[in-house]
Amino acid sequence: MTPRLPRAIDQGLASCHVCGKVTPVNRGRCPRCGESLHLRKPLSVQRTVALLLAALALYLPANMLPVMTISELGDVMASTILEGMVEFWHREAYPIAIVIFVASIMIPIVKIVALVWLCAAATGKVHPSPRVLGRIYWFTELLGRWSMVDIFVVSILVALVQFGAYMTVTPGPGALAFAGVVVLTMFAAMSFDPRLLWDRLEILNASETLQPTPNRE
C-alpha cells in the first residue's frame, strides 16, 4: 500500500489565494499581501454551483437570441449561433462552421457538465479514481482557454464587413448572453477548489483502512 504523504492542511499551513505564499493559517492574514487565509476556499462548491446555474440560465438565450444582425442593401437579417453555423456550412465554409459549433455549443455545455461532476465528486456523490479526477480537472482547465474563440470570430467578421459600403454587421443580444456564459463558467472554474477532491479521497482511503477484514476459516 502506498504510504500516506504529508499534507499542508495537516500541518496547519494555508496557501494564500492571491499571492500563493504558504503561511500558518493561525496567523489569519497573509504577511505578504494581507489577504485572509483559509485552508480551503470558503463555500467553494456552493459558489461553483450557483455560478453554473447562472450560466445555464444564460445558455438558452445565448443560442436562441440573434448573435449578429446583418444589414445588406436595406435588408436586415438576424442570425443566431445555430443559424450562422448552418449558413457557413451551406456556403462550404466548413472550418468556420466547425469552430462555431465546437466553441459555442459543445465547449460550454461540456465544461458545465464537467464542473458539476467535479462538485459531485468533492461532496462524495460519486467516487472516481484519482487518475480520472486529475484528467477531468485538467480537461476543464483546458476548455477554459478556448471558450471565447467564436466571439473572436464574430468580432473579426464584424470588423471586416464594416469596411464594406453595402453591408454592415452588428452584434446582437445573443453575443452578450454567450459572453455571460463564458465569464460565469470561468468564474465557476476559478471558485472551485480542487483540493476538496483530494480531501474526499483521503476520507475514503481512511474509511477503507478502518474497515475490519473478514475472517476466513
Describe this structure in words.
With 217 residues, the chain is mostly helical. It folds into two domains: 1-39; 41-210, Butyryl-CoA Dehydrogenase, subunit A, domain 3. It has seven helices and five strands. The strands form two sheets. The protein has a three-stranded antiparallel sheet with strand order 4-3-5. It has a two-stranded antiparallel sheet with strand order 1-2. A hairpin with a 2-residue loop joins strand 3 and strand 4 (75-79). Helix 1 (44-64) packs antiparallel against helix 6 (173-191), helix 2 (81-90) runs antiparallel to helix 3 (94-122) and helix 3 crosses helix 7.
Q: Main beta sheet: strand number and arrangement?
A: 3 strands, antiparallel
Structural class: mainly alpha
- The CATH top-level class label of the largest domain: Mainly Alpha
Distance between the termini: 25 Å
Could you name the ranges where pLDDT drops below 50 across 5 or more consecutive residues?
Answer: none
For the biggest β-sheet, the strand order reads: 4-3-5
- Helical fraction equals 55-70%
Q: What order do the helices and strands come in, and which of them pair?
A:
Elements: E1 13-15, E2 22-24, H1 44-64, E3 68-72, E4 75-79, H2 81-90, H3 94-122, H4 130-144, H5 149-161, E5 167-171, H6 173-191, H7 195-210
Helix pairs in contact: 1-3, 1-6, 2-3, 3-4, 3-6, 3-7
Condensed summary:
The protein is mainly α and 217 residues long. 57% of the residues lie in helices and 10% in strands. The chain folds into two domains: 1-39; 41-210, Butyryl-CoA Dehydrogenase, subunit A, domain 3 (Up-down Bundle), CATH 1.20.140.
